[in-house]
Amino acid sequence: MTTENEHEKAEPVSGQEFESLLLIDDHEEEVSEGGRKVRRKGIFLLPNLLTTGALFAGFFAVISGMNNEFHNACMAILAAMFLDGLDGRLARLTNTQSAFGAEYDSLSDLLAFGVAPALICFSWALSDLGTLGWTAAFFYVACAALRLARFNVQLGTVNKRFFVGLASPAAAGVVVFMVWVCDEYDVEVVLPIAVLAAVLTMCAGLLMVLNVRYFSFKDMDFKSRVPFFVILMVILLFVIVSWDPPVVLFVIAILYALSGPVLTFYNYHKNKAKADAEEELPNQG
Hints:
Helices cover 71% and strands 6% of the residues. It is mainly α.
């Protein structure tokens, strides 16, 4: 004869009760489809795999920097830059953008382009400066966090052709490629070099939070046809980089970092001259 307790055990577990037993719940977010809001479960695999690769590269760079393997650390940051640039473009091309992906990408960027460059530079030179060294490193990390937080809240409200502030991968390039050049050419870390590294690190951090615009190159259309000479220019760029990757990449990073202040200075004087000309017209009348 079957008891009441045995009947209770034989009852099937509902879907909601089964989900409540899982230790890792499924991700669910609200998306817009056909002009209406719907909720979808799960995440897109491919772009988040690339973001995970960038996160791993950043973590590997931290470990390599702590072990004074600066060449490996710089190469890992370079790989993280490539993966970070690829995941967003791939998500847009395949229409697999999501709020989860955007937040995950920001957290990955904070490690790969915020914490990792600061620790690499600290292990290489800033540790010799004591309090000034770790202060410069922390200042860079804090600016990277502020830059990414501001980018997230401004997403969709600013012109996509420009970044407000130096992008964290570009700032990481300024710091990491400096370390790479000095390590490749066996530059001895003496006090003036350490101070210069601290100043450059803090300047890179400051540029991330200043209200300075940089070209984002996000308006480039990779699906349309381009003139034949464009591919020749791309090949030429690869050739130039292959001559001396650390030096060429460091020069490119410095020039891009300076392009923002130069563009801002130019636009300021252009607008000022225009305003002065408009004020003179009524006086002449």
